[in-house]
Every structure is written in C-alpha cells, then in structure tokens.
TrEMBL record:
Family, as annotated: Belongs to the ADIPOR family.
Annotated transmembrane regions: 31-50, 70-90
Record-listed Zn(2+) binding positions: 68, 72
GO molecular function terms noted in the UniProt entry: metal ion binding; signaling receptor activity
Keyword list, A-Z: Membrane, Metal-binding, Transmembrane, Transmembrane helix, Zinc
Any one GO BP annotation for this protein: intracellular zinc ion homeostasis
GO cellular component, one term: membrane
One Pfam family of this chain: HlyIII
Official protein name in the record: Uncharacterized protein
Keyword Zinc: yes
Organism: Botryotinia fuckeliana (strain T4) (Noble rot fungus)
Subcellular location: Membrane
Amino acid sequence: MYSCLGLSSITFVIHGLMLYGYDTQNWRMSLDWMGIMAGFNLFGAFAYAARIPEKWFPRRHDILGSSHQILHFMVIFAGLAHMAGLLRAFDHIHSNTFQCI
C-alpha cells in the first residue's frame, strides 16, 4: 500500500510530460531527484516486505540492521532527495530566465 500510494503520483508526472515535454518538466519538477526519491522509497519498501536481511541471516539483525530500520533510513534519504529536488525547482522558478507558460 505504501508503494502504491507513492506511485500514484506518476499520473501527474505523465500529464505534465505530455503537456510541456521532458526538458521543461525536468526543471519544474526536478524529475531526476524525484526518480531518486522513488528509488529510495521502493528499495526500503522492498527490503521491509521481503524481510531482508533477516531472511538471509536469522537472529543476526535483531538489534541493528533490520529491514524496518533499513526502511526508515531509506525514507530519510528519500526525504533528503525530495528536498534537493524542491530546492532546485524553487531556484529555477525564481530565476530571471523562468517564464510562465
């Protein structure tokens, strides 16, 4: 459910790409950073759902390195990637070269 909720935003990305093209939307939405963010979230969700590394090394990751902790680290990294993308989009929109379409 976590992954499906996050991936539902792809609808709006595709709509923007169809209207304005990749180059414009890459600057407006920071698509590269959003892709990195999605990758971190999906990796964390996969590790948690598959119970990796507990499945491979039982009882070795009970305190440190469990899949739940990996999920939380990936969510933090995804948040940092999202913030970097927002800052880049903010700088682009508030630059002198940006024109509303």
